[in-house]
């Protein structure tokens, strides 16, 4: 059982992860931190749209037809410039840095 037969090939199987995360503020930035052991940078995707929807996804192969994947969605509140948001991946950890934009009250 489980072997391919002729043109009938098994679909890949997926193990879904829910990696833990932390959010914190540092030096005027909001920072999302996710520990992602076993992942490489090219296996990750970070997307932020103009409405503040942040999507972090990843997928990596763990066998011939076996994959591990995850997807997390966040909402960035307040005033921010999407062009200033940065994502860094080092030592199996992902950091997404959102600079806080301060607005002056009552003046130009």
Automatic annotation (TrEMBL):
<dbReference type="Pfam" id="PF00011">
    <property type="entry name" value="HSP20"/>
</dbReference>
<protein>
    <recommendedName>
        <fullName>SHSP domain-containing protein</fullName>
    </recommendedName>
</protein>
<dbReference type="InterPro" id="IPR008978">
    <property type="entry name" value="HSP20-like_chaperone"/>
</dbReference>
<feature type="domain" description="SHSP">
    <location>
        <begin position="12"/>
        <end position="108"/>
    </location>
</feature>
<dbReference type="InterPro" id="IPR002068">
    <property type="entry name" value="A-crystallin/Hsp20_dom"/>
</dbReference>
<comment type="similarity">
    <text>Belongs to the small heat shock protein (HSP20) family.</text>
</comment>
């Amino acid at each position: 059982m489980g072997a391919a037969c002729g043109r009938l090939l098994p679909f890949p199987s997926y193990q879904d992860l829910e990696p833990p995360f932390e959010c914190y503020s540092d030096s005027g930035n909001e920072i999302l931190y996710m520990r992602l052991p076993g992942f490489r940078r090219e296996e990750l995707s970070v997307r932020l749209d103009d409405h503040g929807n942040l999507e972090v996804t990843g997928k990596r192969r763990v066998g011939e037809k076996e994959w591990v994947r995850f997807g997390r969605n966040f909402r960035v509140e307040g005033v921010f410039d999407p062009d200033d948001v940065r994502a860094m991946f080092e030592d199996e950890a992902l950091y997404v840095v959102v600079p806080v934009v301060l607005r002056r009250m009552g003046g130009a």
